[in-house]
From TrEMBL:
<keyword id="KW-0547">Nucleotide-binding</keyword>
<dbReference type="GO" id="GO:0005524">
    <property type="term" value="F:ATP binding"/>
</dbReference>
<dbReference type="InterPro" id="IPR027417">
    <property type="entry name" value="P-loop_NTPase"/>
</dbReference>
<keyword id="KW-0808">Transferase</keyword>
<dbReference type="InterPro" id="IPR000850">
    <property type="entry name" value="Adenylat/UMP-CMP_kin"/>
</dbReference>
<dbReference type="InterPro" id="IPR006259">
    <property type="entry name" value="Adenyl_kin_sub"/>
</dbReference>
<dbReference type="InterPro" id="IPR007862">
    <property type="entry name" value="Adenylate_kinase_lid-dom"/>
</dbReference>
<comment type="function">
    <text>Catalyzes the reversible transfer of the terminal phosphate group between ATP and AMP. Plays an important role in cellular energy homeostasis and in adenine nucleotide metabolism.</text>
</comment>
<protein>
    <recommendedName>
        <fullName>adenylate kinase</fullName>
        <ecNumber>2.7.4.3</ecNumber>
    </recommendedName>
</protein>
<dbReference type="InterPro" id="IPR033690">
    <property type="entry name" value="Adenylat_kinase_CS"/>
</dbReference>
<keyword id="KW-0418">Kinase</keyword>
<feature type="domain" description="Adenylate kinase active site lid">
    <location>
        <begin position="139"/>
        <end position="174"/>
    </location>
</feature>
<dbReference type="Pfam" id="PF00406">
    <property type="entry name" value="ADK"/>
</dbReference>
<comment type="subunit">
    <text>Monomer.</text>
</comment>
<dbReference type="GO" id="GO:0004017">
    <property type="term" value="F:AMP kinase activity"/>
</dbReference>
<dbReference type="Pfam" id="PF05191">
    <property type="entry name" value="ADK_lid"/>
</dbReference>
<comment type="similarity">
    <text>Belongs to the adenylate kinase family.</text>
</comment>
Length: 225
């Protein structure tokens, strides 16, 4: 899950990318990052960095992890708050992995409000579950090079074999129908209500994520322009 918070000129504009696994956020986020000179903040990486640096929040996070507990939402928001103040993030950032629940979204909003800013737009990568299943379960990779194929959209010359080396392709564990079903169930139950939360604020822009990537990019640029 990727969320984009964008700062332009002297006014902070905060835009969030939202959608289920396979909806194309991972394709569009690097384009947005480069176009608007944003930094990438992955909550998992930030937590590990804070723990390694032994920051006050990192120490608290380590205490929770050592006990086998989940790191609290407040701690994660605090670490995001610290990261936002880095010079590299002054034009904005892509937030990866947070918020996933309405409570987390509320805490994020509270933190932003204290800084005198707010979310301006939420980009919803809307797509049918059946299309996602076709996209994801058709993906195969060549493990040593990272080359990717798709049985329908970008098939190898020989089924199950890498075009360059002739070595066998593999399917990632997350790309099976069973795993996708579980991930989508969690998304619809936990994360989809975040869209409702921002819809009530009039902030949601629905994108046609089933379209080819270049067409989705055009939609994204129109929303963010």
């Amino acid at each position: 899950m990727y969320w984009v918070l964008q700062l332009l000129e002297e006014k902070m504009r905060d835009n969030l990318l939202f959608g289920p696994p396979g909806s194309g956020k991972g394709t569009q986020s690097p384009i947005i990052k480069d176009e608007y000179c944003l930094c990438h903040l992955a909550t998992g990486d930030m937590l590990r960095a804070a723990v390694a640096a032994k920051t006050p929040l990192g120490v608290k996070a380590k205490e929770a992890m050592d006990k086998g507990e989940l790191v609290s939402d407040d701690l994660v928001v605090g670490i995001i708050d610290e990261a936002m103040k880095k010079p590299s993030c002054q034009k904005g950032f892509i937030l990866d992995g947070f918020p996933r629940t309405v409570v987390q979204a509320q805490k994020l909003d509270e933190m932003l409000q204290k800084q005198g800013v707010k979310v301006d737009k939420v980009l919803n990568f809307a797509i049918d579950d059946a299309i996602l299943e076709e996209r994801i379960t058709g993906r195969w990779i060549h493990p040593s090079s990272g080359r990717t194929y798709h049985t329908k959209f970008s098939p190898p010359k020989v089924l199950g074999v890498d075009d360059v080396t002739g070595e066998p392709l593999i399917q990632r564990k997350d790309d099976t129908a069973a795993v996708l079903k579980s991930r989508l169930e969690a998304f619809h139950k936990q994360t989809e209500p975040v869209i409702d939360y921002y819809s009530k604020k009039g902030l949601v822009a629905n994108l046609h994520a089933e379209k080819p990537p270049k067409e989705v990019t055009v939609e994204v640029e129109k929303v963010l322009s």
